[in-house]
Amino acid sequence: SMKNGKVVPRIGHTANPVPVYIYVPSVPGNKIFMIDNTGTPTIRNIAATALSLLGFKGPEHMDPALIGFKH
Questions:
Q1: Which of 70, 13, 7, 2 is closest to 44 using CA atoms?
Q2: How far apart, in whole angstroms, are the C-alpha atoms of residue 41 and residue 21?
Q3: Does the N-terminal or the C-terminal CB of the chain have fewer CB atoms within 10 Å?
Q4: Which of 61, 43, 59, 40 is nearest to 51 (CA)?
Q5: Quick one: which of 65, 33, 27, 34 has its CA closest to 49?
Q6: Cα separation of 70 and 27, whole Å?
Q7: The model scores a pTM over 0.85
Q8: What is the pLDDT of residues 58-67, one digit of tens each?
Q9: 3-class secondary structure for the chain?
């Protein structure tokens, strides 16, 4: 946006729910599930979720992943 003729970055974000869809064609059936022990999920859960999708467990200091895998 512009302010006094200068470009100003928009840094605000919404408090509204934002849907996230995960499609993993290499995982057959219903092997991916949502984890319901995270309280209110926020963007802070995304890093651990990405690590989970890559097959890693997030570090203890991170907020938890939003998904898990059934074996």
A1: 13
A2: 14
A3: C
A4: 59
A5: 65
A6: 10
A7: no
A8: 888 988 888 8
A9: CEECCEECCCCCCCCCCCCCCCCCCCCCCCCEEECCCCCCCCHHHHHHHHHHHCCCCCCCCCCCCCEEECC
